[in-house]
Amino acid sequence: MDFKIINPATLGRPRGYANGVLAPAGGALLFIAGQIAWDEGQRIVGADFVAQFERALLNVLAVVREAGGTPEQIARLCVYVTDKEEYRARQSEIGACWRRHMGRHFPAMALVEVKALLEDDAKVEIEGIAVIQ
């Protein structure tokens, strides 16, 4: 799918996301529910923040692939974290994880710090929208 990335110069250069993604007409929209760092048995993979980010991202990708899509077809992600300072402190590790699974594809994104997630041990939740052709 050939998304058109929209990054107005007046907003400055985004780091690790796109300000907008224009998807061509004709694709099916896949709405991806919030995914946390659950394994197949619905157990949190551990307490490490980056490990939780990676597993949540892999769970998002599992939904996309099950629908017949690829990571490049993800148009938007919203990442919820319980500690934005931990996210900032571990950004380089998170970036390496991102590149392993998403390459250089950066959808429109938001990061939101929340007080807590539904599962007590969860530190990261990722939801999104993909356009599947």
Overview of the structural elements:
The chain is of the alpha+beta class and 133 residues long. The chain has one domain: RutC-like (60s Ribosomal Protein L30, Chain: A), CATH 3.30.1330.40. It contains three helices and six strands; from the N terminus they run βββαβααββ. It has helices spanning 49-66, 84-89, 91-102, and strands spanning 4-6, 20-22, 28-35, 74-81, 108-113, 124-132. Helix 1 runs parallel beside helix 3. The longest helix has 18 residues, at 49-66. It is globular, with a radius of gyration of 15 Å.
Protein traits:
alpha+beta, globular, 60s Ribosomal Protein L30, Chain: A
Number of strands: 6
- The radius of gyration computed from the alpha-carbon positions, rounded to a whole number of angstroms, is 15 Å
Strand order of the largest sheet: 3-6-4-5
Distance between the termini: 7 Å
How many helical stretches?
Answer: 3
* Element-level helix/strand string: EEEHEHHEE
Q: Which range does the strand content fall in?
A: 25-35%
Let me know the CATH homologous superfamily: RutC-like
| CATH architecture term | 2-Layer Sandwich
Percentage of residues in helical conformation:
25-40%
CATH topology: 60s Ribosomal Protein L30, Chain: A
Secondary-structure content class: alpha+beta
What's the mean pLDDT score? 94
As for the number of domains, it is 1
Query: Sheet with the most strands?
Result: 4 strands, mixed
**Which shape, going by the Cα principal axes?**
globular
**Tell me, what is the CATH class?**
Alpha Beta
The low-pLDDT segments are none
